[in-house]
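Q: For a teaching handout, I want to show students what a protein-ligand complex looks like in token form. Below are the inputs, and the small molecule is guanosine-5'-monophosphate. Please produce the holo structure.
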Amino acid sequence: METEKGLLIVLSGPSGVGKGTVRKAIFSEPDIQFEYSISVTSRKMRPGEVDGVDYFFKTRDEFETMIKNDELLEYTEYVGNYYGTPVDYVKKTLNEGKDVFLEIEVEGAKQVRNKFPDGLFIFLIPPSLSELENRIKTRGTETDDLIRSRMTVAKNELKMMNLYDYVVENDKVEHAVEKIKAIVIAEHCRRNRVEKRFKKILGVD
Ligand code: 5GP
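A: Here is the structure, written as tokens, with guanosine-5'-monophosphate included.
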């Protein structure tokens, strides 16, 4: 019997929203079934980080060789450093029927969406967006400069949302983790995914 492919789960969101914290909290849960795809980066190792655990740390030259050799599913340059997802690990793990989890910034997520339209794309938003909305609602006409500049940031963040399947507010890390776990469970129960499993019985190829 053909092994059912795993699900590619992509967690992304605007910078500073807490993607890393949420991802670490997810993987510290005892019952997590998905595999974390360790990224490659050209940035310097921070104290406490371990090569091959937090990232695969490479020089810029090494990273550029990986780009040339098509070894990355996606990559981007973010605040002066390269970040990317090794493609072989993702493909191999999905083919083994395991779910793969990526925690990446929005440019990379866009590239993955193009290559894996079937993936599960989750957008993490900051609680400040709801706060902002409430303030606008309760105060009616917001005109001060601070609100106006916060509105511009918020608008840009919200515009990125349209590439994603689900949106999770990171109000509390535990809440975000619970929601993400629930989304993954629901995604596995989606009719078109389940149907694929039963295609022999259903008599379709
Ligand atoms: P940091 O340097 O703080 O570990 O990560 C900076 C940013 O890079 C974070 O937003 C993180 O989500 C993102 N990032 C980490 N790994 C990857 C990757 O493989 N690809 C992309 N596109 N972004 C990544």
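A: Two things your students might notice: The longest helix spans residues 173-188. The mean pLDDT is 92.
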